[in-house]
Amino acid sequence: xxxxxxxNLGCDDLDKSMKFYKDIGFTIIQQPEQEGEMFGFKAQTGSxxxxxxxxxxxxxxxxxxSGNDVLISLSVKxxxxxxxxAKKVEAAGGIIKDAPKVRNNFYGFSFQDIxxxxxxxIVMA
Length: 125
Prior knowledge:
Pfam families: Glyoxalase. It comes from Staphylococcus carnosus. It is a single chain. This protein has about 120 residues and is of the alpha/beta class. The protein has a single domain, classed as 2,3-Dihydroxybiphenyl 1,2-Dioxygenase, domain 1. The protein is about 25% helix and about 35% strand. It has helices at about 15-25, 55-60, 80-90; strands at about 5-10, 25-30, 40, 50-55, 70-75, 95-105, 105-110, 120-125. The radius of gyration is 15 Å and the shape is globular.
């Protein structure tokens, strides 16, 4: 029986990626044996997202993977939190792809991280 789910993302520079996710407000998760090899990040609840060097990620998937193979959706509780997160994303070097606004009956925005991964942020009270 399947018991949990998480994502693995490839990155070009592990230290820069870790700083990016920390700077925009995620909790960094890393076991001592993972230092220099990978790290995870997570929101207040839910499963972590693991970040690994692209070479290792390519070994996992058996091909040369690009940075935008998946859109990861995350929720916040208020429009103000979404707006603040968008500011943090830009300040940390991310690219806002769709500015905060109401779309499809939800307030939110989308962005691309420093390694090309796409994220969707929506307000869900």
